[in-house]
Amino acid sequence: MSTPNSASQEYLRNAVLTATPEQLQLMLYDGAVRFATRGLEALRARDREAAFEALDRAQKIVLELDGGIRREVNPTIADQMRALYHFVYRRLIDGNIHQDTVAVEEALRILRHMRETWVLLLEKLQRERSGLSSAGRDASDPPAASAPFVAEA
Q1: Angle 22-26-89 (CA atoms, 0-180°, nearest 5)?
Q2: What CA–CA distance (Å, rounded) separates 139 from 2?
Q3: How far apart are CA 122 and CA 109, in angstroms?
C-alpha cells in the first residue's frame, strides 16, 4: 500500500514524464513562483531556515529555465530572456542573503509575468494547432515558431 506522499510523488513523476516541452516549461514557472512565494512568506515570518530552503529551490529552478534556452532559434530574444533570468536569480540571492523582501517581491513580479506570458503563448499555439488540424494537417505537428525557449526533450 502506498502512502499519500509516495502517491503524490508518483503522480508528479508521471506528469513530468508525459508532459510536452511546453508543459514542462510551465511546470518550471509554477515551481519557481511557488517556492519564491514560500520564501517570501518565510522571510516575513522571520523563519530564516524555511526562507533559505524555499528561495534556494526557486533559484535552482530559475537556473534550469536559463539552461533550457535554445539560443540558436533566436539569439536576440534568447539573450534578452537570459538577462531576465539572471536578474531574477540575482534578486532571489539578494533576498536570501540579506533577508530582503523587496528583492524577492521584484523577482516574483517578473516570474509571475513570465508565467502569464507563457500561458498566453501556449493558448496561442493551441489555437494555431487546432486551426492547422482542421485545415487537414496533423495537430501534433508543431508550427514553425513553436516554443523557441524550451530545451528539447
Answers
A1: 120
A2: 37
A3: 20
Work out whether the CA dihedral 87, 93, 98, 104 comes out positive or negative. positive
**In angstroms, what CA-CA distances link 92 with 35, 65, 104, 117, 151?**
11, 14, 5, 21, 23
Assess whether pLDDT exceeds 80 at residue 98: yes
23-80 residue pLDDT tens: 999 999 999 999 999 999 999 999 999 999 999 999 999 999 999 999 999 999 999 9
Residues present in the chain in total: 153
**Alpha carbons 49 and 144: distance in angstroms, whole number:** 46
pTM: 0.79
Q: How far is CA 97 from CA 30, 39, 43, 69, 105, in A?
A: 23, 12, 11, 27, 14
Residue 151 region by backbone torsions, left for phi larger than 0, else alpha for psi between -120 and 50, else beta? beta
Instruction: Give the separation between CA 67 and CA 24, rounded to whole angstroms.
Output: 13
**Residue 153: partners with Cβ closer than 8 Å, 6 or more residues away:** 20, 21, 24
Helix (H) or strand (E) holding 40: helix 21-44
